[in-house]
Automatic annotation (TrEMBL):
It is an enzyme of class 5 (isomerase). It comes from the Bacteria. SUPFAM superfamilies: Prokaryotic type I DNA topoisomerase (SSF56712). GO terms for cellular component: cytoplasmic replication fork. The keyword Nuclease does not apply. This is DNA topoisomerase. Residues 5-137 form the Toprim domain. Residues 437-470, 628-677 are annotated as: Disordered. It comes from Paenibacillus aquistagni. The lineage of its organism: Bacteria, Bacillati, Bacillota, Bacilli, Bacillales. Keywords: DNA-binding, Isomerase, Magnesium, Metal-binding, Topoisomerase. Residues 662-671 have a biased composition (Polar residues). It catalyses: ATP-independent breakage of single-stranded DNA, followed by passage and rejoining. GO terms for molecular function: DNA binding; DNA topoisomerase type I (single strand cut, ATP-independent) activity; metal ion binding. NCBIfam families: PRK07726.1, topB.
Length: 767
């Protein structure tokens, strides 16, 4: 029976209670809801419903069988989570008592989806309004209720959310079952998970194949009057000790002259405000926190303590409406013991709607950057306090002046050799004062670490700590007081940490050949800020990666998964390209520019293609399966986790493969040591297969005289041939459109296979 009240459905209990405190401060509290005179406030507990498992469509799917694939439901069934079914039932009963409903779930695609499934489950026909807010402060909640909009405005966003979920289900369920049943070991595949795994795989391959370039560096200490400075020789690298000694002898004891002396003034502006990924990266770097841990701490600061704004954001900027709240937060910080001194030095006039380092409404989508609210922090745990401190200082920095410095560049010539000196002298610390303690720690750490081996170590300007400006007279000679020789070597790429992997996920797609897809992913990357942490955790859970300190290491199972997927001929599953295509289309569906039905039909066709490719693939050897099982059984306590197939169920793997942030993959040699073929050799009458070598892609019939090879590094064309480009060259004879740079000018063109007998390439300019 209706009471004439309005049901407010929040996404989580804390959010619901915060809303109730504002709109119904005298509401009667119940375990599952709060009831006031006008509103009944209840909540989901995250996802109360999800897409049903395959066996609910047909019992035969309980048993994984390759011949039962594909699984392509005409319409998707939803099922309630057993853990939270009582709360779902209560929501349905409360809705019967109300005349209308307010969707107060998170303002974003996933929040929209959570509400949509509940609405579908209970078959509601009541009027629905949408609350769209970015933080849980009383002022924002009141303003949000004053500006409620009709739910129909968000119908396209709901459609995009459903399409994302159902498409992930199709790929995850079908690809995971196909690869698992074909190769007799549990292999989880998904749209985002698998390209992320491929990033880790490819980085390890780069490290493994890296050949250091060894050389010698010559540096000198110069002196003029009371000024001494260090210079590093510039020019071609010195490869041998003989060459080094010859150069050293040619300049020893000779005076130097100042060939060039330049002075430039510069400024450094504050770092961007935090989005979630940037916060996770910094917390991993500074504190060693995992991405999931940082997200959990930020969520606690938002929901439990209400001292920061919504954390699951992808924006580093605010809108004009947020500027007053930043000033309110500053005034609050001036009343706290921890931040009073820093907040008192802030200059409020620096944060305004014209400050593009802070306010850029066009770069704010669902939520603005993470900010402290005006609520005073109470008793935070030590770890919560660390995350809160990062967010506070990042905002405070924008109330400080930019840091100012003078950069001195000296070119000193001794004989025929030139030495370069770069010196930076800070004239105003400005916002950097907030981070001076961090700078001191970094310097101590740098002294302890062996930076001498890093070829980039000498490129950073030396800091001049004198009270007087650095000064030399360019018309006078300088004395060479000391010569030093250091043996150096170029360094391989570093293994991923969670912080650097998050950065790679965020920037994934920037190397895509297709410019339209590159644009689609430039603000998206792999996954979303809210789900990247879960993707990394999933890779650990299924035994694809393990942690070694901060480093992420690929297990044998993870290596095998990437290479099997690539060997099957579905390289798109390991590339960011598919996610780029999906995100572009989902964005168009959300804005009403594209059809959901057409998108889902394309996903179904791709699912059929994946299954067809796996069907033709040769199963892995029993020896490799045994190695995977053994590597998994040796793992203990979360260290170096290998395959977990002995303990994990196929059902769990498929669920993980079908979740939002799982994705597919591509590579070149299988884990049993056998080379994987990319295609037939183009040389007429050869009959060989193209495989990957250390420096190029060559033919298996090389012993029979085949000279076909495509070198990975095409120095004259200034391109590195990726496996995706190789596939295009072998199948089509050309790559997609690329950008080339010759003598500073850019042009569009394709790489074409000029000679099928040798593998020589050429550039075909766009006409």
């Amino acid at each position: 029976m209706s009471t004439g009240k309005i049901l407010v459905l929040a996404e989580k209990p804390d959010m619901g209670r915060n809303i109730a405190q504002v709109i119904e401060p005298r509401a009667k509290r119940h375990r599952t809801h709060m009831e006031g005179e006008r509103y009944i406030i209840t909540w989901a507990i995250g996802h109360l419903l999800g897409l049903a498992e395959p066996d609910l469509y047909d019992p035969k799917y309980k048993r994984w069988n390759f011949h039962d694939l594909p699984i392509l439901p005409e319409s998707f069934k939803i099922i309630a989570s057993k853990r939270t079914k009582d709360q779902l039932k209560m929501i349905g009963e409360l809705a019967k008592q109300c005349d209308s409903i307010i969707n107060a779930c998170d303002a974003g695609r996933e929040g929209q989806y959570i509400f949509a499934l509940i609405e579908q489950y209970w078959k509601w026909k009541k009027p629905v309004k949408r609350l769209w807010i970015s933080d849980l402060t009383p002022e924002t909640i009141r303003k949000g209720f004053d500006q409620l909009e009709d739910a129909s405005k968000y119908a396209n966003l709901t459609s995009a959310a459903r399409a994302r979920s159902e498409a992930d289900w199709l790929i995850g369920m079908n690809a995971s079952r196909a690869f698992t049943t074909k190769h007799r070991t549990l292999l989880s595949v998904g749209r985002v998970q698998t390209p992320v795994l491929a990033l880790i795989h490819d980085r390890e391959q780069e490290i493994e194949k890296f050949e250091p370039d060894r050389y010698f560096e010559l540096s000198a200490i110069f002196e003029q009057a009371d000024t001494s400075y260090k210079g590093v020789r510039v020019g071609d690298r010195i490869r041998s000790e003989e060459e080094m000694e010859k150069i050293r002898a040619s300049i020893e004891g000779k005076p130097g002259v100042i060939d060039d002396f330049q002075i430039k003034e510069g400024k450094e502006y504050p770092y961007r405000l935090y989005d979630l990924t940037l916060l996770q990266r910094e917390a991993n770097s500074k504190f060693g926190f995992s991405a999931k841990k940082t997200l959990d701490l930020a969520q606690s600061l938002y929901e439990k303590h209400k001292v920061i704004t919504y954390p699951r954001t992808n924006s580093n900027y605010v809108t004009e409406q947020n500027i007053p709240s930043m000033h309110e937060s500053l005034r609050m910080l001036q009343t706290t013991d921890a931040y009073r001194d820093l907040a008192d030095k802030a200059e409020p006039s620096r944060v305004h709607k014209g400050n593009k380092g802070v306010c850029q409404p066009v770069k704010v989508e669902d939520h603005h950057a993470i900010l402290p609210t005006k609520k005073r922090p109470g008793s935070l745990s030590p770890e919560e306090a660390k995350i809160y401190d990062l967010i506070v200082r990042r905002m405070l920095a924008h109330f400080y002046p930019p840091a100012e410095y003078t950069l001195y560049t000296v070119m000193t010539k001794v004989g025929e050799e030139s030495f370069k000196t770069s010196i930076k002298q800070w004239t105003l610390r400005g916002w950097k004062e907030l981070y001076d303690q961090d700078e001191k720690k970094k310097k101590k750490s740098a002294k302890r670490s062996d930076v001498g081996k890093d070829e980039k170590a000498g490129e950073e300007p030396e800091e001049w700590n004198g009270t007087e400006p650095f000064h030399i007279d360019a018309s006078l000679p300088v004395q060479v007081k000391e010569l030093s020789v250091n043996a150096k070597a170029t360094q391989p790429p570093k293994p991923y940490t969670e912080g650097t992997l998050l950065k790679a996920m965020e920037g994934a797609g920037k190397e895509l050949e297709n410019e339209e897809l590159r644009d689609a992913m430039k603000d998206a990357g792999l996954g979303t800020p809210a789900t990247r942490a879960a993707t990394i955790e999933r890779l650990k859970q299924v035994g694809y990666v393990a942690m070694s300190g901060k480093r992420i290491e690929l297990t044998l199972k993870g290596k095998t998964a990437v290479e099997l997927i690539r060997h099957a001929g579905v390289q798109l599953l390991t590339s960011p390209e598919m996610t780029g295509q999906w995100e572009r289309r989902l964005s168009q569906i959300a804005s009403g520019e594209a059809s959901r039905d057409a998108f889902m039909e394309a996903v179904r066709k791709f699912t059929l293609h994946v299954i067809d490719c796996v069907r033709k693939q040769q199963s892995v050897s029993g020896d490799l399966l045994k190695q995977i099982e053994e590597s998994g059984s040796k793992s203990k306590g979360g260290r170096k986790t290998g395959s977990k197939s002995s303990g994990a169920t196929k059902k769990a793997a498929a669920k993980k493969g079908a979740s939002e942030e799982n994705a597919g993959s591509t590579s070149s040699a299988d884990s049993s040591g056998e080379r994987i073929g990319f295609g037939d050799c183009p040389r007429p009458g050869c009959g060989g297969t193209i495989i990957e070598g250390r420096k190029g892609y060559g033919c298996t019939h090389y012993k029979q005289g085949c000279k076909f090879v495509i070198w990975k590094e095409q120095h004259t064309l200034q391109k590195t041939i990726s496996t995706t480009m190789l596939q295009s060259l072998l199948s089509k004879g050309h790559t997609q459109m690329l950008t080339f740079t010759v003598k500073g000018s850019k042009f569009k063109g394709r790489l074409v296979l000029q000679d099928k007998a040798t593998g020589d390439l050429n550039v075909e300019r766009e006409s």
